[in-house]
Specification:
The protein is mostly helical. The chain is built from 14 helices and no strands. GO terms for molecular function: glucosaminyl-phosphatidylinositol O-acyltransferase activity.
């Protein structure tokens, strides 16, 4: 078990990521898949009469399968997958023209002030891509350049936590304009109560990993820290922050935190400490030093959360459709 653990940790470690262009192309595939799905539904299928089985099959063919093969079997041909999905969309549109289904009054048009389909799609895509990456990363079929980078670099899986943070932020009470309607004490109370299940999940994961001697990527979060602790800390810190600032300042404060974090990393030696530790040898002395990656990443994730709130404000802003 110990030999297998070390081999697997070596298999997952030491990667430097890939280019921003490839990551952009990879993340665009489920987006194009969503577009293809909607085009097919509108111009080729009867929206009212389509069965759940056919809808499930359509979802699998346009969303799940392209995303899965792009991250595995056809990771070197992502552009071709994008082109194929766009070609399918154009074909569906052309067939729709031939069938004379272009009467816009007969289409199911989303009301901008009521339905936020783009948010639903985004959160669905995040969950889908996360599931694919987590299940595939342990196997050689998943390209190592798409795994999490060790120190510097940008891999496909490095997007995961940031995407989840934004997914939470865009539907948060602050983004939906419900923050100011609740007294501060009640906000803090609700935030703390909401953190309890997340913290419990964090401790359950910690105990399970340590108890079974399961392989783990220590340089990702640290010895004891994990994704759930980060989410819990973000929820508490964001609630406290919004007790001090106005929600409309989210973008500005997020930019300020981003600049400050980068200055600390680049000019004040914070990046060297994160990589090499307090003794400069990569050792982990004390609870903070042992979990320095996870703890010191919180300001960056807080900035991402603030950006997500600003985006959510834009989507939930009342609009009039003429």
């Amino acid at each position: 078990m110990s030999d297998f653990k070390h081999e697997h940790e070596a298999f997952l470690a030491g990667h430097n990521g890939t280019s921003f262009l490839e990551i952009g192309a990879l993340t665009s595939i489920p987006c194009i898949g969503c577009f293809s799905r909607e085009i097919i539904l509108i111009f080729m299928l009867d929206l009212d009469g389509i069965s759940k089985r056919r809808r499930f099959l359509l979802d699998f063919l346009t969303l799940v399968m392209p995303s899965a093969i792009a991250a595995t079997l056809m990771s070197n041909h992502i552009v071709y997958i994008c082109a194929f999905l766009l070609a399918v969309s154009l074909l569906a549109y052309w067939i729709g023209l031939k069938r004379n289904v272009m009467d816009l009054h007969s289409l199911h048009m989303a009301n901008l002030s009521e339905q936020k389909l783009c948010i639903v799609w985004y959160r669905s895509i995040v969950n889908l891509m996360t599931a694919i990456a987590i299940l595939a990363v342990d196997f050689p079929i998943f390209p190592r350049r798409l795994a999490k980078s060790e120190t510097y670099g940008f891999g496909g899986m490095d997007n995961g936590v940031g995407f989840f943070v934004i997914a939470n932020a865009i539907v948060s009470p602050e983004a939906r304009g419900k923050h100011c309607q609740i007294p501060v004490f009640i906000q803090l109370k609700h935030s703390f109560k909401g953190c309890i299940p997340i913290m419990l999940l964090g401790f359950v994961r910690l105990i399970a990993v340590k108890g079974t001697d399961y392989h783990e990527h220590v340089t990702e979060y640290g010895v004891h820290w994990n994704f759930f602790f980060t989410l819990a800390a973000l929820r508490l810190m964001s609630t406290l922050l919004y007790c001090l600032i106005c929600v409309d300042q989210s973008m500005l404060i997020g930019l300020a935190i981003t600049v400050l974090q980068q200055l600390l990393l680049s000019l004040c030696g914070l990046s060297n400490y994160i990589i090499n530790g307090s003794e400069g040898t990569g050792s982990r002395v004390g609870i903070f030093d042992a979990n320095r990656e996870g703890i010191l990443s919180i300001p960056g994730y807080l900035a991402i959360y603030l950006f997500g709130v600003a985006i959510g404000q834009f989507f939930f802003e009342k609009r009039f459709v003429f």
